[in-house]
Amino acid sequence: MTARKNWDTYFMDIAYMAATRSQCNRRRVGAVLVKGKKLLGTAYNGAPMGVPDCTEAGCMLVEEYEVHITEDGTEQMNRKQRCIRTIHAEQNLLLFTDRDDREGSVVYVTDQPCWTCANMLANSGVIEIVYHRGYPKDSDKVTNLMSMRGIKFRQITAYEPPVGTVMDVTN
């Protein structure tokens, strides 16, 4: 007899399944909203409804530069590329779920939220964010934000996504 999946694995599996709907060539991300072990919503990243996505129209990339102060006090310039054609999975999840449902809920997301999504989640009513793959570009400041807001923020590393749901990630 096969062992029953724990809740983290169950909900992260669903997030990865949601990510298979994404047409993003760079990073397919899925997110789910859970409250009291009840699934309240799923979402994935992609272009707005009715608008050509990246597979049809190409990525709409912008470059950003961010100054980071290292531990020894020196400035380090970090270059970030991001696609502005897509709405992130976390943003879609917030757009298509009710605020009342989000109060006291947990978000499972395949990838650690970026800075913008973290800001939105910080004001969404969720009390915990669980993710699988890290996002080093924004990790420190996102972790700090969640700590300041008192939102439980954790990565599950001992996890294997369902077969056929993972693509190679392009940062």
UniProtKB/TrEMBL annotation:
Pfam families: dCMP_cyt_deam_1. The keyword Translocase does not apply. GO terms for molecular function: dCMP deaminase activity; zinc ion binding. GO terms for cellular component: cytoplasm. Its cofactor is Zn(2+). Zn(2+) binds at residues 88, 114, 117. Signal peptide: none annotated. Gene3D superfamilies: Cytidine Deaminase, domain 2 (3.40.140.10). The active site is at 90 (proton donor). Keywords: Hydrolase, Metal-binding, Zinc. One of its GO terms (biological process) is pyrimidine nucleotide metabolic process. Residues 6-156 form the CMP/dCMP-type deaminase domain. Coiled coil: none annotated. Belongs to the cytidine and deoxycytidylate deaminase family. PANTHER family: DEOXYCYTIDYLATE DEAMINASE (PTHR11086:SF18), DEOXYCYTIDYLATE DEAMINASE-RELATED (PTHR11086). This is CMP deaminase.
